[in-house]
């Protein structure tokens, strides 16, 4: 055997040995992650596949050259591997978030709980305070770290946390007692691999959820793909074709089923008026078509007070022009919807507009179209409905062109998103008699950089502040 062949076989053997070692280490980490305790009575579980995310980012950095080296260089320091090693906890193969029924569930309906293994509680507490700006205090349950949307109980070997995707109305510290005992009081604890949610360990999504609704999210280079499903009590007997929306629209939305899950049993009180969800649902015949086409100019009257020549305070009314979103929202309705809105005082029939006390931001006209749709519009008059397209069997369609969302007066907090995101497309189709599958993709403006790093750059510290 020649020296070249020996070197070749040695190289192949080394590669196979390295691959087997990595596979074994990877499998062991996944096995250990499956032993993470969750409450036996958990109602839903979300899995964040940390190893999968790290592997994907590293793979892109290896094969895509300078673009992904820029990605790694621009990652927030708080989320770098070096920072992970210094914060006093182990890098988990998976992070599991779960929801449970508890006494304060009505006050914190979207809060998810979870836990991490702690190696150095002092270092972890320091990281929470210095890097994430969380307030630190002591309690009988351990060290407490809190912010508007996060609560952490740091103990000697484990950190328990509660996270809220939005700022809750009540202070999260009210959950301290529940959080500290969540693994003991919810029917005891059980390993994820032996729980009712064990299948989530094998889900291919980088972020996946199991419970009332199933979903998965995959962060890719320049885009984010997501899939999910939800159950519905109503599917239309006759499905219409999806409208052919103009590509120039800022937002296009098509909902073919009645929005029963969102309005049934609810009541809205605003501006001294009341609308009942069940009454509105009774007038709905199903399809909703919404188009945001850009901006339109409306005239508004501003009341000011000035001193006249006699130094007396007098009222002065000024007519001003202002730009508002050009929106057309059309609802296929039964006869009587506008009568109900009028009876509730919401609709001013003399001007065919929504009462300004109910909607003070801009003028919203109401028109009944020959097709039976009731259209709400910010323009002076109604707009023809888009014609049917060749797309069929869609119960839901959403398209958002972020370049067109240039409405003056949008919250400054939206600017980073509009600068980063390019296009969102989402489609929902029936998969069974009572289940709808949803698939979508969010495209980023920078197609070179990994999408997760782009989002972390936007959210640096903000989600915990």
Description:
With 465 residues, this protein is an alpha+beta fold. It has 2 domains: 36-209, no CATH class; 225-445, no CATH class. It is 24% helix and 35% strand. The strands form 4 sheets. The protein has an 18-stranded antiparallel sheet. It is globular, with a radius of gyration of 27 Å.
Radius of gyration (CA) equals 27 Å
Structure annotation, total helices? 12
How far is the first residue's CA from the last residue's CA?
A: 66 Å
Task: Tell me about the largest β-sheet.
Answer: 18 strands, antiparallel
Ranges where pLDDT stays below 50 over 5 or more residues in a row are none
The tally of beta strands, per DSSP, is 24
Task: Give average pLDDT, whole number.
Answer: 83
How much of the sequence lies in strands comes to 25-35%
Structural class by SSE content: alpha+beta
Which geometry do the CA atoms define? globular
């Amino acid at each position: 055997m020649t020296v070249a062949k020996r070197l070749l076989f040695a190289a192949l053997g080394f590669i196979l040995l390295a691959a087997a070692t990595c596979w074994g280490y990877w499998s062991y980490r996944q096995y250990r992650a499956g032993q993470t305790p969750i409450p036996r009575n958990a109602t839903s579980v979300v899995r964040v596949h940390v190893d999968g995310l790290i592997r994907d980012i590293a793979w892109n950095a290896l094969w895509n050259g300078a673009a992904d080296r820029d990605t790694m260089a621009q990652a927030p320091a708080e989320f770098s591997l070096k920072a992970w090693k210094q914060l006093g906890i182990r890098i988990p193969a998976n992070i599991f978030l779960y929801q449970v029924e508890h006494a304060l569930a009505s006050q914190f309906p979207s809060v998810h709980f979870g836990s991490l293994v702690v190696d150095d509680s002092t270092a972890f507490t320091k990281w929470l305070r210095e890097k994430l700006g969380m307030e630190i205090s002591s309690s009988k349950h351990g060290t407490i770290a809190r912010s508007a949307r996060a609560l952490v109980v740091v103990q000697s070997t484990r950190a328990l946390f509660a996270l809220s995707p939005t700022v809750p109305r009540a202070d999260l510290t009210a959950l301290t007692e529940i959080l500290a005992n969540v693994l003991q009081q919810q029917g005891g604890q059980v390993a994820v691999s032996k729980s009712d949610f064990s299948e989530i360990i094998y889900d291919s999504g980088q972020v996946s959820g199991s419970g009332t609704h199933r979903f998965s999210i995959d962060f890719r280079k320049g885009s984010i793909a997501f899939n999910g499903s939800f159950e519905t009590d109503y599917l239309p007997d006759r499905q219409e074709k999806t409208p052919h929306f103009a590509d120039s629209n800022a937002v296009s939305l098509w909902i073919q089923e009645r929005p029963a899950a969102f309005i049934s049993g609810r009541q809205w009180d605003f501006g001294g008026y009341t609308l009942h969800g069940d009454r509105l649902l009774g007038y709905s015949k199903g399809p909703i078509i919404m188009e945001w086409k850009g901006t339109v100019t409306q005239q508004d009257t501003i009341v000011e007070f000035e001193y006249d020549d006699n130094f007396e305070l007098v009222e002065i009314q000024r007519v001003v022009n202002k730009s508002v979103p050009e929106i057309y929202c059309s609802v296929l309705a039964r006869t009587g919807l506008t009568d109900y809105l009028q009876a509730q005082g919401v609709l001013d029939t003399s001007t065919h507009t929504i009462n300004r006390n109910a909607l003070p931001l801009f003028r919203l006209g109401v028109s009944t179209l020959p097709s039976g749709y009731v259209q709400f519009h910010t323009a002076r008059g109604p707009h023809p409905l888009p014609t049917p397209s060749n797309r069929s069997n869609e119960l839901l369609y959403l398209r958002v062109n972020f370049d067109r969302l240039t409405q003056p007066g949008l919250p400054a907090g939206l600017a980073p998103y509009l600068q980063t995101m390019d296009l969102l497309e989402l489609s929902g189709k029936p998969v069974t008699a009572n289940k709808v599958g949803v698939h979508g993709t969010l495209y980023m403006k920078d197609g070179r950089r990994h999408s997760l790093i782009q989002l972390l750059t936007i959210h640096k510290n903000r989600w915990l502040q």
